Amino acid sequence: MKVRNSLRSLKQAPGAQLVRRRGKTLVINKKNPRLKARQG
User: Fold this and answer.
1) 23-34, pLDDT tens digit by residue?
2) Which of 14, 24, 35, 39 has a beta carbon 3.0–4.6 Å from 29's, enabling a disulfide?
3) pTM: predicted TM-score of the whole model, two decimal places
4) Range of 6's domain?
């Protein structure tokens, strides 16, 4: 899990989902689990 300023490049990856949990914005990706990140 990376903490990033901008999730724009990650959310365009194939299979990526943008999720909001507890006030944090997360990107999760079932196809490529290495592309997990959070912002906030």
Assistant:
1) 999 999 999 999
2) 35
3) 0.80
4) 2-39
